[in-house]
Amino acid sequence: MGLTSGSFITVLAIAALGMLAATIWLWPRVAGRRVRDFSARIGLLLVCQALVIAAFLAFINSYFSFFGSWSELFGTGAPMAVQFIRPGVSAKPLVVTATDLGPVPGGSVLPVQADGAIASKPPGKPPVIVWPGRSRQHPSSGPRPSGGPRPAGRPARGLGSAAGQVPNKGQVPNKKGRPGVPRRPGKPRVTRTLNRHNAAAVNGEVLQVAINGQRSGIAVSRDYLYLPPQYFQRAYAKARFPVVLALTGYPNEPWSIVKRLALPATAARLVAARRIKPAIYLMMNVSPALPRDTECTNVPAGMQVQTFFDTDVPLAMEHTFRVQTGRAGWAALGYSTGGYCATKLAMMDPGQFSAAVSMAGYYNAIKDRTTGDLYGGSSGYQNENDLFWRLTHLPAPPVSVLVTSSRVGERTYPGTLAFLRLIHAPMSGYSLILPQGGHNYGTWDRELPQCLEWLSKRLTPAAPQPSLAVQRS
Fold first, then answer.
1. Which residues contact 355 (CB under 8 A, 6 or more apart)?
2. How many C-alpha atoms does 118 have within 13 Å on its Cβ side?
3. Which label site among 43, 67, 180, 346 has the fewest CB atoms less than 10 Å from its CB?
């Protein structure tokens, strides 16, 4: 039973309620003054409180995606430790491990093997698309039922079918799903069945990817990539798209960027409203070595995490997709620890990233029990990873940075103001400060549209072929 599974949270909630009822029922029986009764009452209270707290923490962890598995929580599983490519082993820089349509208004679904379902937030019902060989399913309806895909040879139902019914042979269903007039011989029933490429040209695609760092040797999996509909359209067949590297907080899962922050869905909505230009969004865990917090640092005699993000990841994307290669086509975005890393990557490698967004991020090099010794015991190297120190003692890089915070409810607010005061040319600093907020997805949800609009103005857009540049409604 998975740590974030709904069944596990349900079992804990039932157990907590059951223990509460048992405590109320047993309390009169242990109401005596003997040591045994006293110990029994303490035991009942402790067990009841433990189950209630466990159910609450499991729900909070599932909502915020702090830990994705038991091994990640306890730091005992090998998959949660950093993985490396073995010398002499040839590995593709980027491997797509799962794919599905999305995001469309209302949601998107990945197969069960993609570690869950992707959901997005914008309201409204999307057009239902029937894929050949797949059962009809609304994109927001969750993972495919356990029964698996439609058996071979069984036709997909069209939009006119009543739920759970297949029209009689030779008849066309009317609008209410009842059998209608006989079909003309030889005239096929009209459906909206689309092949995968055409469907992606309408809705885009959400991919689950694994990236194998060719320089750092770091290998990661279970990250997500959003390709906009324009990527699959004829007008953009030769266009190269800008890329936004989106990083989670710590500890967190890339899943949270898709589901809780709804980055792909928000971007799709803004593109449809012509408020931003289409871009590719790569959503990654800020630390490839969980449970350790690496702070995107090249650790002396250790894992080279900064090299992984600013060299390996761009090379993997360039090798696999039509993306821009210049700094004007790359930006970084993150929240909390991801905000620090996004700003740090832009400032330390302005040749790769031209802009960064830090949502409730911090700007100093942290060293605590979660990080361990990231700097090889060198205070000088720790200073080089401190953004306050860099702006005070080194030339400012030619990058643009947007920082967000809240005057009330956000503990990073004082540090954000201090960072803004240190920015000087040729670096440009911008701020988005809310009157009240917090260190949570609700606040970042409110900030995200303006952040994406700010980024879009600073990235080189994908250029369609003029003769084919017809916008789909």
1. 331, 332, 346, 399, 400, 401, 402, 455, 458, 459
2. 34
3. 43
Question: 13 is in which domain, residue-wise?
Answer: 6-64
Q: In CATH, what number is assigned to the domain containing residue 248?
A: 3.40.50.1820
Digit-coded pLDDT (tens) for 75-92? 554 434 456 665 445 578
CA distances in angstroms from 22 to 16, 29, 54, 392, listed in the order given: 10, 11, 17, 62
Nearest to 287 by CA among 56, 75, 3: 75
- When divided into structural domains, the chain yields a total of 2
Lowest mean pLDDT among 72-81, 121-130, 271-280, 386-395: 121-130
Distance, in Å, from the CA atom of 402 to the CA atom of 412, rounded to the nearest integer, reads: 14
Please tell me the distance from the alpha carbon of residue 107 to that of residue 141, in angstroms, as a whole number.
8
Q: How many residues does the chain have?
A: 473
Q: What torsion do the CA atoms of 360, 211, 205, 314 make, to the nearest 10 degrees?
A: 70
Cβ partners under 8 Å of residue 449, min gap 6: 266, 270, 275
